[in-house]
């Protein structure tokens, strides 16, 4: 089971100018939000807090359950306790993940380990692919009609995997490979756990999800908050 959430930050006021907005999220998130200097960064961070709170509440959990793994992945710690204790609250939530870029904050929840990434598909830094992507990934970009789109498709797929595993940037970019298949993309070589992918576009954004087990996703099946 995969559920997607989305907030367009243009629907949010600057949290610094609107205390009611800040009060929607837990004190730790409030502190994080107000540390940002730019209004849009504050809005994206607030949006992340709002989506996390919604996902936790949908699973009968409070923000008090929120913890961060070794590499910074937000996790609901209480879930593991619930499962061990044989309770049902929160038992269907395996994990969740958040990503933000440009106008959007997106979130995903799943009954398995999950990661996601969104990027605006403009001005691709192609030199990153030359230095850090696998040879087959570089070839996919070089032979694509739209290199910006090809780069950001692979970038978001790779980052969604790094975020699903929780390793983040501690997982070297060329230690695992994303390969094109007849139906989409799949994990090639990897030192980490298996991952299954879906990628989609809306406006000029590319959004990818990686889940620990195979899954279906209808295009643009977002729950829009606000
Ligand atoms: C986690 C990471 C991989 C993603 O960072 P990012 O792309 O800048 O940011 P995103 O908007 O996609 O995701 C940020 C969110 O991911 C979550 N996150 C943080 N660390 C995480 C981790 N180790 N695993 C999973 N999720 C993580 C947080 O919820 C964070 O949002 P918050 O700080 O508002 O709570 C980060 O380690 C990073 O440094 N990325 C650098 C980008 C890069 O070079 N990517 C190469 C891809 S080819």
Short characterization:
This protein is of the alpha+beta class. It has helices at 19-22, 27-35, 39-58, 78-84, 126-132, 135-142, 147-165; strands spanning 2-8, 66-68, 74-76, 95-101, 104-110, 114-120, 178-180, 185-187, 196-202, 205-211, 222-224.
Key features of this structure:
226 residues; alpha+beta; Ribosomal Protein L22, Chain A; four-stranded mixed sheet; 7 helices; 25% strand; binds coenzyme A
Q: What's the helix-strand series?
A: EHHHEEHEEEHHHEEEEE
Roughly how many Å apart are the termini? 23 Å
Average pLDDT confidence is 92
Structural class assignment: alpha+beta
CATH superfamily, called what? 4'-phosphopantetheinyl transferase domain
Query: In CATH, what is the class?
Result: Alpha Beta
Number of strands: 11
* Number of continuous helical runs: 7
Per CATH, which architecture?
Alpha-Beta Complex
Polypeptide structure, described:
This protein has one domain: 4'-phosphopantetheinyl transferase domain (Ribosomal Protein L22, Chain A, Alpha-Beta Complex). 33% of the residues lie in helices and 25% in strands. The chain has helices at residues 19-22, 27-35, 39-58, 78-84, 126-132, 135-142, 147-165, and strands at residues 2-8, 66-68, 74-76, 95-101, 104-110, 114-120, 178-180, 185-187, 196-202, 205-211, 222-224. The strands form 4 sheets. A 4-stranded mixed sheet has the order 4-5-1-11, covered by helices on one side. A 3-stranded antiparallel sheet has the order 6-10-9, with helices on one face. A two-stranded antiparallel ribbon has the order 2-3. Strand 7 and strand 8 (185-187) form a beta hairpin. Helix 2 (27-35) packs antiparallel against helix 3 (39-58) and helix 6 (135-142) runs antiparallel to helix 7 (147-165). The two termini are 23 Å apart. Residues 45, 48, 71-74, 97-100, 115, 117, 155, 158-159, 162-163, 166, 168-169, 173 line the site of coenzyme A.
